[in-house]
Write a structure and sequence with these properties.
The chain contains ten helices and six strands; from the N terminus they run E-H-H-H-H-H-E-H-E-H-H-E-H-E-E-H. It has helices spanning 23-41, 45-57, 68-75, 79-85, 96-105, 118-128, 140-143, 152-156, 174-183, 221-224, and strands at 10-13, 109-114, 136-139, 167-171, 187-191, 207-209. The protein folds into two domains: 5-21 and 91-227, Rossmann fold (3-Layer(aba) Sandwich); 24-88, no CATH class. It is 39% helix and 12% strand. The model is unreliable at 226-234 (pLDDT under 50).
Length: 234
């Protein structure tokens, strides 16, 4: 994919599904939590799955959706502790490290902008060690709005001094890309391979990639080669 990097100063990147394999999150919320909840309440796994999915969806597009303290209280489970039980599934997508190195080499401002709760951020930054690659990390919980809210991107400017017309956003959520487009962010990229367990489907509305290597010009391939052929972090 051809991107004119001379027109871009700032790169905003989502975390789960964009930089990190969303298989961890899907497994955790749709399999691991129902299993633990069913055991605690002496109910069937099938009932637990149906009940919890309905409960989760009731908080979709709100900050509660990713608030670990909210879900710990609501489910009477230690959600941060349960996440540590399956943290071995946390993984960086292939070619992410190459992309971050490319951006750093070209002096771009690189911001991780995520809906994730601070406790989730702490766990994933410790596991992946990608934190130092960013100019900074902003959680929607700091902003006070989820990215699905079209007021988010304007409020983000209170934390990040960015020009929407010179900014690229990478996301695995078409909803979040839509709110960013409404605000005026010019370069919008949809990550179609958000989980290693799915068959990627390109967006019909936004430019789509499977891996970030598709945004690295061929002439820059040598810059990023030091991070290995697959680009994943241990």
């Amino acid at each position: 994919m051809n991107v004119d990097w001379n027109q871009i100063d700032t790169v905003l990147l989502d975390m789960d599904g964009t930089l990190l394999d969303r298989h961890f999150d899907d497994h955790f919320w749709l399999e691991h939590v129902p299993k633990r909840w069913a055991a605690k309440h002496g109910t069937s796994l099938d009932h637990a799955c149906k009940y919890l999915v309905s409960l989760f969806r009731s908080q979709e597009n709100t900050l509660n959706w990713t608030d670990l303290d909210y879900w710990s209280d609501r489910l009477n489970l230690d959600i941060p502790l349960l996440k540590k039980e399956v943290e071995h599934l946390i993984a960086v997508h292939p070619f992410v490290m190459e992309f971050l190195l490319f951006l750093a080499h070209h002096n771009k401002k690189i911001w991780l902008v995520t809906n994730a709760h601070s406790k989730t951020l702490d766990l994933k930054m410790k596991k992946t060690l990608i934190g130092p690659y960013f100019t900074g990390i902003i959680s929607a919980h700091q902003v006070g709005l989820p990215k699905e809210d079209n007021r988010f991107w304007g409020a983000l400017q209170n934390f990040i001094p960015y020009d929407p017309q010179r900014t690229l956003l990478g996301e695995d959520s078409e909803t979040n890309l839509s709110t960013a487009k409404e605000f005026g962010i010019k370069f919008l990229i949809y990550i179609s391979r958000f989980s290693s367990k799915i068959t990627p489907q390109p967006s019909s509305r936004f430019s789509s990639i499977e891996y970030f290597r598709q945004l690295i010009p061929e002439r820059d391939s040598m810059i990023t080669s030091i991070s290995g052929p697959e680009g994943g972090a241990a």
